[in-house]
Write a structure and sequence with these properties.
By secondary structure, this protein is of the alpha/beta class. It folds into 2 domains: 207 residues, Alpha-beta prism (UDP-n-acetylglucosamine1-carboxyvinyl-transferase, Chain), CATH 3.65.10; 54 residues, no CATH class. Helices cover 29% and strands 23% of the residues. Strand 11 and strand 12 form a beta hairpin. The radius of gyration is 21 Å and the shape is globular. The N terminus is likely disordered.
Amino acid sequence: MMLMEPTSGTNYMSGKFVVQGGNRLSGAVRVGGAKNSALKLMAAALLTEEQTALTNVPLITDVKIMAAVLERLGASISYSDPDVIEIKPGYSLYAEAPYELVSQMRASIIVLGPLLARLGRARVAMPGGCNIGSRKIDMHIRGLEMLGARIEVGHGFIEAISEKLVGSKIALDYPSVGATENLLMAATLAEGVTIIENVAREPEIVDLANFLRKMGAKIEGAGTPTMRIEGVDKLHGVEYRVVPDRIEAGTLLVAAAITNGDIMVKDAIPEHLEMVISKLRDIGAEVIASDAGIRVAGCKCINPTDIATLP
């Protein structure tokens, strides 16, 4: 793939992109790590005092913000390579995630479950301030309460306390990704068995479950509507590769199709993009999926198709 030089007068600091279209895109590109997985794995690293190394981490602002959140909580963060983050929470963590960082990225709320499970307490700023309904945090709160936490919400913070989390049966109102992740992480160190029904089933949820299992958690049913978590006393540090970003991969595949191009997206996982692949074939593109990635060759005449989105 060719990166065009900016036209005269283009200013990358002006807050805009200038795109000169009409070019056929071709070549090979490697898809990066999934942001929506990397951020949650970073938070999950708080569940152990041992060091965890995450590889294939995307170099984006959200990752830097999450790293700053973890550092404020007392974890040590280092980079052995540009896409490798080493996280060592140690034995002493702070229970409060500050507003000035959480407010920059709503995914920071995901530290609530790990902090509560590890420390027995957590105080995390609300991403949307005091308006609890706007961020759908109610399912996080109700689920943690069912695990035995006492929770108070006020002045823009969620404060959770529990001497001991105990497994429970929890049914989510809808497959919330954030609530699934927070409850999954909290349940790994809870006493007994937790059953969570109507959970989110995205590949990033499966990636988080695989990461936690490698740390020593006992989890069944990831990728299905119901997960079963048997709590353990302790988790340990691991080295883990972040799953490739299906959204980035899908964007590149569509770029090949609409420009009548020919692009090999290396490391893209076909199973994560089955519907995208199906629709690309419907419109007339040639799609070749393999263990190495996905190749799409476009067509001059694009056929119409229907698309519906679902959880």
